[in-house]
Amino acid sequence: MTMNRAMQMRWRPHRRSWVLFWVRLLVGGFFIYSGAMKAIEPGEFLKMVRAYELTEQSLVLNMVAATLPWFEIFCGALLVFGLGVRGTALVLLLLMTPLTALVLHRALELQEAGGLAFCAVRFDCGCGMGEVGICRKLAENGLLIVLGLWLAMGPRSQLTLWHRLA
Amino acid sequence: MKRDVDGILYEALVVALVGFCAALTANHFSPKGIKLTRDYFPSRPSTDEAGAFDAAGVQRSLVEQIEARLRLNNLGMVGLTEVEELFRDPRHEAEQVIFVDARSRRLYEEGHVPGAYHLDHFYPEETLAEVLPAAMAAESVVFYCNGGDCEDSEFSAIFLREAGVPGDRMRVYVGGMSEWREHGLPVEVGLRRSGMLE
User: Fold this and answer.
1) Is it the case that residue A9 has pLDDT exceeding 60?
2) What is the pTM of this model?
3) Among B18, B58, B101, B146, which residue has the least CB neighbours within 10 Å?
């Protein structure tokens, strides 16, 4: 009995680190994929950034379109390899939250212009996944934010490429 | 606890700075990288003149908005009937009338107006050496993109005008590739003059 409990106590952190590992792969993989889709056609991504009508300053638009895709790939790779996981997750949270608010704002504009039901609004938000329904997009982003929050606040990752940098 | 939070914040700062530098470097070396100082959207229509509402506050249709925007940028517009006539005109075969597809390379290869040149204003250096002499020699140059609110045809036209092609020869086919396909007009796939029709 005592031995079983001791084994369970040793096992618990190990199992949690596997969960952490899979969450890292999921979130990291998502950002690598979405970043790569934008980096393949940065011109198309630039058009979508411009469509949000936040600024007409070409330098600002170009800077966002030039760096965001590669920045996502970089952060995704850090999560996959388990390097600076908590800091990376925090950065992604700080990125995702305003971007999600922007997507929501644009969806509301499209809903008003088209007189549609909210979940019937579909558009390419420049998120690297092509045209998607807004409700699916918001659910996806919500899940990523929750997982990112858990990675940022959770324990230090164990299954990493270099444990000292986890 | 405070030490832990400080550690995460420090880590986030390092990730953000290193990530930003890495992203700039990757963009610089990417063959499709964005040129930071270039203005990719040279037309700047004022909202009053080409916006969703006219001076009297009456809502404009999409076509009216596009027409106003083209006028503002000194570009002509061409509709389906005329574009079809131009396509069937013997001058098209003689390259006196040319079509320029302003969409991405991928979309161009998926299907374009037969014989159309390709000029993606994001990467003009890819095809400019071929398009510019043809446009200089042609009597009429018709630009198109997907249609609807797509602006790539306008930007490509402005780019060629700045490269020296007289503006009065250039017109934009607003209906674009989607209208062309909808009307069952011929579509060439692959490279220009590939001879492969859809």
Assistant:
1) no
2) 0.82
3) B58
